[in-house]
Amino acid sequence: MEEISGSPDRRPTDEPVALPSSASQSSDSEVNAGLEHHLSDATSFPFSSSLSSSTLPVGIIDIDETQGSSQHPRSHLLPHQVGKASHKQSNNVIVPRSSNLALTDGTPQRLASYSRDYFAYLREREREQQDRPLPDYMSRIQGGALTQDMRALLVDWLVTVCEECELMPSTLYHCVELIDRALSKLQVPKEQLQCMGCACLFIACKFEETTVPSLEEFTYMAAESFSKKQLTDLELRVVEALSFRLSTVTAYNFLSRFTLAAGSGPRETALVYYFSELSLLHYEFLGFSPSIRAAAALYLARQTLAVSNTDSARRAAEERNIWTPTIAFYTGYSPATTLPLQECVRLLRRAHAGVEYSPYEALKLKYGAPALLHVGDIACVEEKDLGATILNLN
Description:
Number of helices: 15
GO biological process, one term: cell division
Strand order of the largest sheet: 1-2
CATH class of the domain at 250-394: Mainly Alpha
Domain Cyclin C-terminal: 249-381
Keywords: Cell cycle, Cell division, Cyclin
Pfam families: Cyclin_C (PF02984), Cyclin_N (PF00134)
Number of strands: 2
Shape: globular
Helix content: 40-55%
CATH architecture of the domain at 250-394: Orthogonal Bundle
Region (Disordered): 1-35
Order of helices and strands: HEEHHHHHHHHHHHHHH
Largest sheet: 2 strands, antiparallel
């Protein structure tokens, strides 16, 4: 697959435009008042709760019971889309109209009494190997016919498609997970890789969206590089290869809870989501569980913002509190003792360092927008500034 065909714009134009090939190329306080918490679309699984706040260790803030109180800072909204018609502008503050957004304070959609059971269920699901992609499928299954660059080019194009079609962030994560799982089962010629991506996006839309793009729209976005029948045939192959086990656990499922535990402001939250989506581009992250990837994105975002602080006293204080007991409790990880987290943070930092020279620009453009506080333009932290625990120097 030398290049991805077609423009993701769903509005007809005279001629679809091909995306480039892989060979080329305000402060928190100002926005706090107008930003509401981003409620993950995966926080309402109906399990009964068997835990009460009295079971929490001493010093751990109960984020399920104290949301919005003075005991814990509120996490903030990350808009689903950037500059789309689904947003209203009022006094330079983004006000999304998505039904999946709600206040943290007493919102019934959050179902706080079930949340611990729900996230315990997610942890169990992410450990089920039959629903995880192989971390070495490029060599073991594809036999070298596909490359990491081909995969990255496909994911970069899908980011643009999801933005232009105003799809939910969860749809992108679900789609990429299905692609990797399918490629762990099926041998796919590089000529069919774009069709495979669209087939997986079509499936993901049926799970995550209220309105699904039509087959005509998918073939148009790919510049008619495959037919509707080829798309549905490949969709059926994917479904059968995965034995109809199409639900997934991704890093996205953990992001809103982790940022809530950290009390992340809008800029930090946007940076966490940027780093998490950046990991989707890179094949190397398949060896890490979704919750590890989400925790790594949170750690790197907090460390990056702390290091960028020009006030040395405040920087030192922030660095001491990168990973609080509350964060450790709700993520389930400690950077000092969790080797996969240390490795994932270092790898994610290198991925961020490579953005400046990468030909895959969709995420940088998306997160460089004003609505996401230009976090795509934040400079990469030096490896020496990651902290002794991450560098395993203790």
